[in-house]
UniProtKB/TrEMBL annotation:
This is Oxidoreductase. It comes from the Bacteria. It comes from Streptomyces lomondensis. PANTHER family: GERANYLGERANYL DIPHOSPHATE REDUCTASE, POSSIBLE OXIDOREDUCTASE. Pfam families: FAD_binding_3 (PF01494). Residues 6-284 form the FAD-binding domain. InterPro entries: FAD-bd, FAD/NAD-bd_sf, Geranylgeranyl_reductase.
Length: 345
């Protein structure tokens, strides 16, 4: 006999937890499958953009962290910065973000089952997880960048022609933040993304197509390496990638994809959590309205601007003829830079 639910969420990261929270508050009987113990950590730049902060506040969540005033690009002695116009962002440890969402989900009465989903079977009325006794009217694939649900259902799309695969590496340093801005340092082969996280904590995320250890990559940013002595490192290096992932659709019968599982371009513009939260809300709204097939077009229109800007920037970054012009152009056109930052924020 199957234990049948309205919504079965595979993956308890920000996308899955936010989906479950919206669903439970809408009165849907919801369950989450997440094999990792809370709080879950992950390679992330940990800069919550103002849109993410607003979405978390609307969910009634308070996340401890360090306010972020805007974005600053730096290359050598050249700098350009843009303040956020519609409220601050927040530098927040992933573990804090996860704990707040996880607690809210439990408070809403949603069980989080310690389960890694291997196989999904759908029919016209619902989805079953073989061998678990679990069944639901809808399954939400929120299982991240390398979503096994997306792969198993044949929804993965190859990302040929999009440049060399890019990866992210992150580490934390017990160093007081020197700026309330997220700094993006442009190196020849990588970007270093510095996020203030607390009175004496910063996060460093390196984004690159180069395969080399974190410390080797950091050496190509001598001014940063000088501020980040190895003895100040307080976490192990975590990595993720390849970053660019595409899904054929976000609505496949009774399976709906959200967060990184729904498709991801790059961490360069730091909007992954915002998009996960936006997607979660759109998904649940469509399930509630009984219009699940509209979710894919709602997702595409809600994320279009972010996808276009991030794609443009990453493609320019990967073109040898264009890459050297990104920073000089941003510095020459600070209003355009500010408009782009605030369009993303
Ligand atoms: C280097 C780097 C820097 C980034 N910087 C930022 C930033 O500054 N700001 C920002 O907003 N975003 C940033 N992002 C993106 C952000 O981390 C993601 O967009 C966000 O975590 C997506 O959330 P998610 O819930 O979709 O996926 P995840 O956070 O990856 O969660 C997926 C969950 O699914 C679970 N899971 C996986 N497989 C299964 C399975 N088979 N069964 C059950 N559960 C499963 C995993 O254990 C995990 O908990 C960055 C990403 C990288 C790689």
């Amino acid at each position: 006999m199957s234990d049948s639910h309205d919504l079965l969420v595979v993956g308890g990261g920000p996308a899955g937890l936010a989906t479950a929270l919206h669903a439970a508050r809408a009165g849907l009987d919801t369950v989450i499958a997440e094999p990792r113990r809370a709080p879950v950590d992950k390679a992330c730049g940990e800069g919550l953009m103002p849109g993410a902060v607003r979405a978390l506040t609307a969910l009634g969540l308070e996340i401890p962290g360090h306010p972020i005033t805007g974005i600053r690009y730096i290359q050598g002695r050249r700098q350009v910065q843009a303040a956020f116009r519609h409220g601050p962002g927040l530098g927040a440890r992933r573990t804090h973000l996860h704990s707040a969402l996880h607690r809210a989900v439990l408070d809403a009465g949603v069980p989080v089952l310690p389960l890694r989903v291997e196989e999904v079977r759908q029919d016209t009325t619902g989805v079953t997880l073989p061998g678990t006794g679990l069944r639901a009217r809808w399954l939400v694939a929120a299982d991240g960048l390398h979503s096994s649900v997306r792969r198993t259902l044949g929804l993965e799309v190859k990302t040929r022609g999009a440049g060399s695969p890019r990866y992210g590496l992150r580490r934390h340093y017990a160093v007081p933040p020197w700026s309330p801005y997220v700094e993006v340092h442009w190196g020849a082969q990588a970007e270093a993304y510095i996020t203030p996280l607390g009175p004496a904590l910063i996060g460093v995320a390196l984004l690159t197509a180069r395969r080399a250890p974190f410390t080797t990559q950091l050496e190509s940013f001598p001014e940063l390496a000088a501020r980040l002595p190895p003895e100040a490192a307080v976490t192990a290096v975590r990595g993720a990638g390849p970053l660019r992932q595409r899904a054929r659709t976000r609505a496949h019968g009774r399976v709906l994809l959200v967060g990184d599982a729904a498709g991801y371009i790059d961490a360069l513009t730091g909007e992954g959590v915002s998009l996960a939260l936006t997607g979660a809300e759109a998904l649940v709204a469509n399930v509630r309205r009984g219009t699940p097939s509209r979710y894919d077009s709602d997702w595409r229109s809600a994320t279009r601007r972010h996808r276009l800007l991030t794609d443009l920037l990453v493609r320019a970054r990967q073109q040898p003829a264009l890459a050297p012009h990104i920073m000089p152009t941003a510095a020459r056109l600070p209003r355009l830079f500010a408009a782009a930052v605030n369009a993303l924020a």
